[in-house]
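Is this the right way to post structure tokens for a design question? Let me know if I should format differently. Anyway, here goes:
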């Protein structure tokens, strides 16, 4: 496989992992990936594995959706009820914390307030990169070996020979 193909196939995973890692740092809620266990067909052909084809990204509207405009939010009430019913199973890793019941009740109250649809200023930002992945990666010199640790990397442009990373 040539380098261009490797870049095209791996860049969406790289950007996704960068966004997910930063989202966890800033406590941004991330939807889990959907895993399907059923056989799938596309144009009467069996789908063995799914890959994102660069030219076929599906986006609603490319751009940045800001929090200073009112948006209509609608939530799936059945899904919220399901989450409330299974909140103990979802939070099982935190069951031994001293304020578990307080946090659980606050979470349930917040979930109940989310039911229905409403117009409000959102705290949700959506940035659609469209087909800018190669430009983002190449312009910012985003490479896996340059972001994993703060140690010096052999091929890093910012390597000055000492043991500290100079990329800022």
């Amino acid at each position: 496989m040539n380098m261009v193909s490797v870049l095209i196939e791996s860049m969406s995973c790289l950007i996704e992992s960068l966004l997910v890692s930063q989202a966890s740092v800033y406590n941004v809620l991330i939807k889990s990936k959907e895993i399907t266990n059923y056989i799938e067909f596309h144009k009467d052909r069996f789908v063995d594995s799914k890959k994102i084809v660069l030219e076929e990204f599906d986006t609603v509207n490319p751009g940045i959706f800001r929090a200073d405009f009112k948006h209509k939010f609608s939530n799936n009430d059945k899904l919220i009820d399901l989450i409330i019913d299974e909140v103990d199973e979802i939070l099982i890793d935190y069951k031994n914390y001293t304020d578990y019941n307080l946090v659980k009740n606050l979470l349930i109250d917040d979930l109940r307030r989310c039911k229905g649809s409403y117009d409000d200023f959102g705290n949700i930002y959506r940035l659609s990169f469209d087909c800018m992945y190669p430009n983002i990666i190449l312009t910012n010199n985003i490479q896996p070996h340059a972001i994993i640790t703060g140690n010096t990397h052999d091929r890093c442009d910012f390597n000055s020979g000492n043991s500290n990373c100079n990329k800022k």
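Format looks fine. Someone answered above. Worth noting: The beta strands are 41-42, 45-46, 64-65, 70-74, 117-121, 126-127. The longest strand covers residues 70-74.
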